[in-house]
Amino acid sequence: MGPEDHGASLPSAGVVVRSSQIEKMRDPLSAEWNVALGPTPGAEQTADELLYQIDLGLLNEIFDNFLAVVGLPVAVIDLKGKVLASSKWQRLCMDFHRVNPGTLTRCLASDVDLSRQMQEGKDFAIYRCKNGLTDTATRIVVEGRHVANLFIGQFMLAPPDAGYFRAQQEEFGFEAKAYAEALSEIPIVAEDRLPALLRLMGGMAQQIARQSVANIRVRKAYAVVEQQVAERTRELADLNVELQQFAYVASHDMREPLRMISSYLALLERRLGNDLDGECRDFFGFAKDGAKRLDRMILSLLDYSRIGRDSQPQEPVALGEVLDEAIANLGVAIETAQARVARLAPLPIVPGNRDELVRLLQNLIANSVKYRSPDRLPVVTISARREGLFWQLSIADNGVGIAPEHHDRIFGIFQRLHGVDVEGSGIGLAIVKKIVQHHGGHIWVEGEPGVGSTFHFTLPDVSPSAGKGPLEASR
Ligand code: ADP
Q1: Ligand 1 centre from 418 Cα, in Å?
Q2: Rounded to the nearest whole angstrom, what is the distance from the C-alpha of residue 448 to the centroid of ligand 1?
Q3: pLDDT digits (tens, 9 = 90+) for 198-251
Q4: Whose CA is nearest to atom 13 of ligand 1?
Q5: Does ligand 1 have an atom closer than 6 angstroms to the CB of 413?
Q6: Quick one: which of 135, 142, 90, 99 has its CA closest to 115?
Q7: What is the Å distance from ligand 1's center to 439 Cα?
Q8: Given pLDDT bands bounded at 50, 70 and 90, which one contains residue 14?
């Protein structure tokens, strides 16, 4: 078959091309001449940052589908002629025109020429390339910058001029039969359909480019926020360590002058002995009590500052055993108050620091017994249930209860709702809260005055079945 007798069987645009024909087509992206044109966007040293941001993979996919349906190759080509995204191309271009140095020069010159037309401000152009095929192009403008062109091309607007192609075949020494065959695969397109096709593809490419840029912006913004959060967290952690050290050192060092005050008070009292009248004796008494209280407070602060200082909550701890230990430690108080302490469900094993967890339960149960109602014997119940990725433990009592307006306040350092008639330093719940937080959970209280209080706290559940429903929780 010669170039002059293939016109009648040419496919035209809008006709679905046979897949066997597409299979013969070639990928221009990895072609030597394209690679030689410089780095692909995405490579580090890409010239144009905006091009780097376009989702070229997505464009490749759309272009392949366009080719399969419409039968025309599509490509995004940068202003220097490098193909950035593309469907497969016609064999005539890939196996002949772009292989021979003479015709390749013409191909590239055609791309650059068309680019120049676009840069001069045209929205789209239809152009007969220097090797006899027709290309069309439209601009891709991102953020107001013309960064590349979209090409739909490698077709003809009329049956090929046999004389022209034969001359070309002879001039560049192409094998006649193979060249004619490749030429016969070139589709012929009705010119009036082109503007709509270009607008469609150009619009899509533009949209993808914009979307890609928007995505990158969002990602960059996220990265900035994440970095800021990380920095603030680090700063806070440093500050926290500093504060803890300060609290520890300050409270430790404050005890020394306090001891001095107490001992000189005692010395003075002894020296003055019988010279002191009743009122002066009272004054001495108040001063010594104050010093004792201050010492207790300092000790409490020291205690508080030590929580979580040296230990990470890591070892698996059976809360059932922890509860046994806490109850045993409170034996005398429980017995004296004739309190009943009951567990309502098996308690889980959690990662934690055993000593801290004993202290946590012990403080809460001690309070339940201490703040008992004068009208009934104390009953304290301990239960556990699964809540998503956490265990929720609850310690409920039938004591005096706490008014809702104090539910948050009581977890603060030295916050007490009771007077000096009930012994305590007001540090217990602050310590409890710190232990819970050190274990990755949180704590809150419910209840009403006269009815009782329930303290709830959560601890992370790291068992394989974490996050399962409450049914599995008790197994
Ligand atoms: P302390 O018991 O030494 O005063 P806590 O920090 O343990 O200090 O408790 C703070 C305050 O919260 C207590 O003074 C008490 O008024 C109140 N409180 C704590 N637990 C209970 C409870 N189970 N029932 C009623 N009040 C409570």
Answers
A1: 7
A2: 14
A3: 788 778 777 877 777 787 788 889 999 999 999 999 998 888 888 778 877 877
A4: 416
A5: no
A6: 135
A7: 22
A8: very low
Give long-range contacts, CB 8 A cutoff, 24+ apart: 122-129.
124/195, 124/198, 124/199, 124/202, 126/191, 126/194, 129/153
Report pLDDT digits (tens) over 332-360: 999 999 999 999 989 999 999 999 999 99
Superfamily for the 312-475 domain: Histidine kinase-like ATPase, C-terminal domain (3.30.565.10)
Ligand 1: distance of its center to the CA of 450 in Å? 15
C-alpha–C-alpha distance, residues 243 and 250, integer Å: 10
What is the C-alpha separation between 12 and 15, in angstroms, rounded?
Answer: 6
The ligand 1 atom at the shortest distance from the C-alpha of residue 431 is 6
pLDDT digits (tens, 9 = 90+) for 143-194: 777 878 888 889 998 888 999 999 999 999 999 999 999 998 898 888 888 7
First to last CA, the chain: 81
Can you give the three-state secondary structure of 337-379, one letter per residue? HCCEEEECCCCCEEEECHHHHHHHHHHHHHHHHHCCCCCCCCE
The verdict on the CB of residue 300 being under 6 Å from ligand 1 is no
For residues 342 and 324, the answer to whether their CB atoms sit within 8 Å is no
Q: Measured in angstroms, how far is the CA atom of residue 396 from the centroid of ligand 1?
A: 13
Q: Is the CB of residue 174 less than 8 Å from the CB of residue 100?
A: yes
Report DSSP letters for 203-270, one per residue: HHHHHHHHHHHHHHHHHHHHHHHHHHHHHHHHHHHHHHHHHHHHHHHHHHHHHHHHHHHHHHHHHHHH
Span from the CA of 426 to the centroid of ligand 1 (angstroms): 7
**Does residue 126 carry a pLDDT above 60?**
yes
12 neighbors 187 (Cβ within 8 angstroms): yes
Question: Quick one: tokens of 8?
Answer: 């009648």
Question: Is residue 401 pLDDT above 50, yes or no?
Answer: yes
User: How big is the chain by its Cα radius of gyration, in Å?
Assistant: 42
Q: Which two tokens stand for residue 236?
A: 């806070």
Whether residue 410 has its Cβ less than 6 Å from ligand 1: yes
User: 333 CB under 6 A from ligand 1?
Assistant: no
Q: Report if pTM > 0.70.
A: no
Q: How far is residue 34's CA from residue 40's CA, in Å, rounded to a whole number?
A: 9
Domain boundaries, given as residue ranges, for the chain: 3-222, 312-475
**Residues near 60 by beta carbon (within 8 Å), at least 6 away in sequence:** 29, 85, 86, 87
The DSSP bridge pattern shows strands 390-397 and 134-142 to be unpaired
Considering only CA atoms, which residue is closest to atom 25 of ligand 1?
Answer: 401
**Measuring CA to CA, how many Å separate 12 from each of 8, 128, 190?**
11, 17, 8
